Structures are given as C-alpha cells and as structure tokens.
C-alpha cells in the first residue's frame, strides 16, 4: 500500500507543478505582487519564494501523509459500515449466541 500511496502522491504533485508552471498562473503571481505598494513588493516576493521552497522540500511527503490518512479513514468507514450492516441484519446475534457463558 505504501508504494501505491507514494506513486499517487507523486502523480498529484506532478499535476500540481504542471498547473503552477502554466503562463497564466505565473502572470497571476506577478500581478499579485505588482498590485502591492512599492515598499512591500520585495518582501512579498521573498515570502512567495520561501513558500515555494518549503513546498518543494516537504510537498510530496505531506501529500503522502494526507493520502495515508485519507485511505485509513476510508478503510475505517467501510469497516464500520460493514459491522453496522451485520449488526442490523442480525448476523452478529448468531455469534453471540454460540459463545459459552
């Protein structure tokens, strides 16, 4: 399962990078900095670069953690639904009645 999650995280990461490298997105980044007052532009650009460095360093790892939690949650919900279905259909009563005591 770990290999599947790693592969899926890399595919999602590739798609995100592809989207961010589109010319319109680059223009939007430049526009968002250009609309600020002159005194704040350099700091805003540096902050944006710092966020991008952080994302490049930890992005895939973060996606792997999120996808792992997502799949664990899906498994928990499916198991819970399965147990509730068994309990409502009476299948668990047969197990209880066979127990000694």
Model description:
The protein is an all-alpha fold and 101 residues long. It has a domain at 2-71. 90% of the residues lie in helices and 0% in strands. It has 4 helices and no strands. It has helices at 2-20, 23-34, 38-89, 91-98. Helix 1 packs antiparallel against helix 3. The model has no long low-confidence stretch (mean pLDDT 90).
SSE class: mainly alpha
Helical proportion, percent range: over 70%
Q: Round the mean pLDDT to the nearest integer and report it.
A: 90
Q: Sheet bearing the most strands, described? A: none
Number of strands: 0
How would you summarize what this structure contains?
With 101 residues, the chain is mainly α. It has helices spanning 2-20, 23-34, 38-89, 91-98.
